[in-house]
Amino acid sequence: MASSASSKKTLVLPEVNFSDWGDIRYLHLGTEWVQGSMKLDAPFEIELEYVQRMMAWLLFVDSKGVGNRHAMQLGLGAATLTKFSRKTLRMRTTAIELNPQVVSACRGWFKLPADDLKLRVVIADAAEEIRKPEWQSTVDALQVDLYDHEAAAPVLDSEAFYADCRALLTEDGCMTVNLFGRSSSYERSLEKIATAFGADAVWAFKPTREGNTVVLAQRTPSRPKREVLAERAQTIQTRWGLPAPKWLRVFKPMTLSLTT
């Protein structure tokens, strides 16, 4: 959760709790809706399929230089992406989270390491924080997963917000976004992203069984050849255990006709 509020004085944040089911621990914001998960016996792996797909930006970079890049998460959730970026990929990693209880829960229940030279958790309103000059053009992998305790629709989902996200990225940087919700409009969200980034910069997965659709947008559009993507996907699976070869069956560039 990293929502924008018109008045911080009146902002009421939901309570944070967790539940265990078998060997999986789930994070909740006071409801039954799952905000993140962790394998108890493998806390630094990515358990959920859609969260694995949030790492699809790896298909667009040379694996040798990943450790020198900067990842940023908007919305900490159960810290899955933050932990994977810092511990597994060994990247400089920044997470922006509005609710300090979520940060405490991740440190206490979900094995989120303490801040160090390559990890920083910022307690802030993401919409405001990302406009700060220090972040502009510094992020190689931006991962946006912003849902409130009802998990109904993205909290930040405007064309202006996506334009601010684009401004964070390096020239070959990518944003991945989780679009899911009982009341959200995927097509409208996709159009906002395409307007901010350019229609030729947008790629998308088919929805998961649970209804999560991960969209990727590039700062600089590119169309790597199929054999290049296949080679990178195999490297991703071999080095980091992500099922990237399977991604290529359900991941493609989007063709959009933007309406005015």
Automatic annotation (TrEMBL):
PANTHER family, sorted: THERMOSPERMINE SYNTHASE ACAULIS5 (PTHR43317)
Protein name listed in UniProt: Spermidine synthase
Key word Isomerase present: no
Record Gene3D superfamilies: Vaccinia Virus protein VP39
A biological-process GO annotation: polyamine biosynthetic process
Keywords, alphabetical: Polyamine biosynthesis
Domain of life: Bacteria
